[in-house]
Write a structure and sequence with these properties.
The structure is a single chain. The chain is an alpha+beta fold. It has six domains: 61 residues; 123 residues, Serine Threonine Protein Phosphatase 5, Tetratricopeptide repeat; 75 residues, Serine Threonine Protein Phosphatase 5, Tetratricopeptide repeat; 55 residues, no CATH class; 162 residues; 139 residues, Heat Shock Protein 90, CATH 3.30.565. It is 74% helix and 6% strand. It is built from 26 helices and eight strands. Strands 2-4-5-7-6 form a five-stranded mixed sheet, covered by helices on one side. Strands 1-3-8 form a three-stranded antiparallel sheet. Helix 12 runs antiparallel to helix 13, helix 12 runs parallel beside helix 14 and helix 14 packs antiparallel against helix 15. The chain is elongated, with a radius of gyration of 32 Å. It starts with a helix and ends with a strand.
């Protein structure tokens, strides 16, 4: 970045060097464009300077001065929040003297926004609540909507997304009633952000695109508010495989708007987002450079939370460059979060530190340091009720004890990690269902209110027209009007019913997806429990070498299983790798009692064919423990994958003892827990598609094994 004093000289030299060569015209245009941005970027500060000059000359304590103070406080919030707070305090004092309640509430809103920029959430919440109470006392609905928005932002900052959405939706209805499209767009943006962080990216993306259409319809494509949905779309694409270039494009569009309006806070946020994209693209040094620029802006604004975020991301980027630097930056970040009393992020940083120290060459000191960080992280995670951080801390502590040769304690800690992870999965499933129910109730109520409002408007208009026709004596016209009104009512009723039915169908589909997640959540603990039993056998026999080998394989499978636990579909090759690892692990336990083969038809692209995670594992498990383990001599398991019209045929074939010797005491074949869960998973998949997925279990001739055929709807990534 060039200093402004030398920029015009630099530009002149570049233009002179480019003029002789026509092929360089594009570079010339870019330089001129950059100069325009620089000039426009100073426009906001120039406007504020002009307002300050007017304020200095205005000596009367009146509403004119009050308006000037409001404009200055609001204008400085994202440029210099401390200055914004100073003007807001003056605004507050003058509004009190003039007894202007509506202006008094505006002063509290400005103070709340200033405190938010400086990460003083508690002070900001008090200000927004005072503003809301004042506006409610004078029935100022617009002001109430602004205060609700501020309170929603605080809940959003704390990660309380359901609460935040509720505040934003209340504010949206207020602004919709007054047809304030700018504030409606702002509420849609905030709702979308909370949906995005709640892993509801499709709804979030839909809201962001609605905002862009609103601004395009009103010719506001360079409005500072336009940058927010652009940046948020960039965040969504940044999480999608193969969309990083597109994410970068949207972030750069947002950055350009922030530079035009000299919005330092949002510019810092966007630079951080762009840096993360470059880090994901395998360019960590570029990421570090951009994060350092963001840090400087946060420091200039006095945003401690922003500074801490930038330092953390710099540390993460250094993982691929220098792990010691990562430790250095994370240690620098930790005191900032302690000062902010942010226990959640303290726990997260300590987990990072523990993990990075484990990645470095092990020494007694480094392992002790990692253990100390992780123990503190575990305590903080429990204190704030963050099950994910707590589970991660237990897992990493298990690795520390394994590195120290304390395998029994490593096993116990891994078991605790799984227990906490199971609690998290169950809680997330419950939260998701609750959120969907509340969202459905809200949307249905909103649709009913809107339909009723349209119905009332139609009736009112019909009555007005009818009265006009009566006055003119047109009886025929009155009759036609009544007929039209009747058709209008019928149309609105049908429209309302159609909207309600569509939303109900969407709700049922999403709940089915949640049920599917819950079943997968049951599947993983079932598999993990059996694996831990195997590890326990080795430990009880004091066979530490085999326990260590087995624990290493188990950790690998565990990582794959946890990575896939929230995915409804994964590539076929990933699922087959996990299956193969599982068979290798169980074969070791049985003393190499069986061999296996995995054959996939040549016409199947294993990288782009998608299947539900661990769909075949329960059947392979049954083949091992109910078929081959009971057989005299060795056995073989064959896994085959083939296409069958528009279905994917997955076959597990073994040469074990067969079903007859696996009967229960009543003589009927008893399905395992894993098989029952798989059957339920297929039933839900069939409801969603609809499809004809099924499981067929065939006993071969007595004593010759079992063949299982699983048919799934054929799905591909592209």
């Amino acid at each position: 970045m060039f200093k402004s004093a030398n920029f015009n000289t630099f530009l002149k030299e570049q233009i002179n060097s480019l003029i002789p060569n026509p092929t360089h015209m594009r570079h010339l245009l870019l330089l001129i464009f950059f100069l325009c941005l620089s000039n426009i970027g100073r426009a906001q500060q120039h406007k504020l300077d002009s307002l300050e000059n007017i304020l200095t000359r205005h000596k009367t304590e009146d509403t004119v001065k009050l308006k000037l103070l409001d404009d200055l406080a609001n204008g400085y919030i994202k440029i210099d929040p401390q200055k914004a707070l100073e003007y807001a305090d003056q605004q507050l004092a003058l509004a009190t003297v003039l007894n202007q309640k509506d202006k008094l509430s505006k002063a509290f809103v400005n103070k709340g926004n200033g405190y938010l920029t400086q990460s003083e959430d508690s002070l900001a919440l008090k200000c927004f609540q005072k503003a809301y109470d004042m506006d409610a006392s004078v029935n100022n609905s617009e002001g109430m909507g602004v205060a609700l928005y501020g309170m929603g932002r605080i809940h959003q900052n704390r990660g309380e997304y359901s609460e935040a959405i509720a505040y934003f939706q209340k504010a949206y209805l207020i602004f919709e009633a007054s047809n304030n499209y700018r504030k409606m767009a702002a509420m849609l943006n905030s709702i979308g952000v909370s949906q995005m962080y709640s892993s509801d990216s499709p709804r979030a993306l839909d809201n962001f695109l609605k905002i862009i259409r609103i601004y395009e319809d009103h010719d506001l494509t360079e409005s500072p508010d336009m940058a927010s949905p652009l940046g948020n779309i960039g965040l969504i694409y940044g999480k999608m495989e193969g969309k990083l270039e597109l994410a970068l494009e949207y972030h750069n569009k947002a950055l350009r708007i922030h530079e035009i309006h000299n919005n330092k806070l949002e510019k810092a946020n966007t630079l951080g987002n762009i840096a993360n994209i470059y880090d994901n693209m395998g360019q960590p040094r570029k990421a570090v450079e951009l994060q350092q620029q963001a840090y400087s802006l946060y420091e200039e604004l006095g945003s401690k939370r922003g500074m801490a975020s930038a330092l953390t991301n710099i540390g993460i980027a250094y993982v691929d460059i220098d792990l010691n630097k990562t430790v250095e930056y994370l240690k620098e970040t930790l005191p900032v979060y302690k000062e902010l009393d942010d226990k959640l992020n303290q726990s997260l940083i300590m987990n990072y530190l523990g993990e990075v120290l484990l990645m470095l060459p092990h020494t007694a000191n480094s392992l002790t340091e990692a253990k100390n960080y992780l123990e503190q992280s575990k305590v903080l995670a429990k204190e704030v009720g963050n099950l994910r951080n707590e589970s991660d801390a237990y897992n990493l502590l298990s690795e520390v004890h394994a590195a120290n040769g304390n395998y029994k304690e490593a096993y116990n800690l891994r078991s605790q990690a799984i227990e906490v992870k199971n609690q998290l999965i169950i809680q997330e499933s419950k939260d998701e269902i609750t959120r969907l129910e509340e969202q459905y109730k809200y949307e249905k109520k909103e649709a009913d209110i809107k339909a009723e409002h349209e119905k009332e408007q139609a009736l009112a208009q019909a009555e007005i027209d009818r009265q006009k026709l009566i006055k003119t004596g047109s009886i025929l016209g009155g009759g036609l009007l009544l007929l039209t009104a009747g058709f209008g009512l019928l149309f609105y009723k049908r429209r309302r019913d159609a909207v309600a039915l569509r939303q109900e169908a969407e709700y049922k589909a999403t709940v089915a997806e949640t049920e599917l997640k819950a079943l997968r959540a049951q599947m993983n603990p079932h598999f993990i429990f059996n694996s831990l039993n195997s590890i326990g056998d080795y430990i009880s026999k004091n066979d530490t070498d085999k326990a260590k080998t087995y624990l290493t394989k188990f950790a690998k499978i565990m990582r794959q299983t946890l990575e896939n636990s929230n995915e409804k579909l994964i590539p076929l090759d990933e699922d087959l790798k996990l299956l193969e690892n599982y068979m290798q692990m169980e074969n070791q336990r049985l003393g190499n009692k069986f061999s296996y083969s995995i054959d996939v038809d040549q016409g199947i692209d294993v990288e782009n064919t998608l299947v539900p995670p661990m769909i075949l594992q329960p059947f392979v498990e049954n083949s091992i423990w109910h078929g081959i383990s009971k057989k005299e001599g060795n056995g073989h398991i064959a896994v085959k994958i083939a296409k069958e019209n528009d279905m994917l045929l997955c076959v597990v074939d073994d040469d074990g003892v067969g079903i007859q010797e696996s009967q229960d005491t009543s003589g009927s074949f008893k399905k395992s827990l894993g098989q029952n869960i798989t059957q339920k998973r297929l039933e839900i998949i069939n409801r969603k598609k609809p499809a004809k997925g099924r499981v067929d279990i065939q006993n071969k001739q007595e004593g010759q094994g079992v063949t299982v055929e699983v048919r799934l709807p054929l799905e591909t990534a592209f």
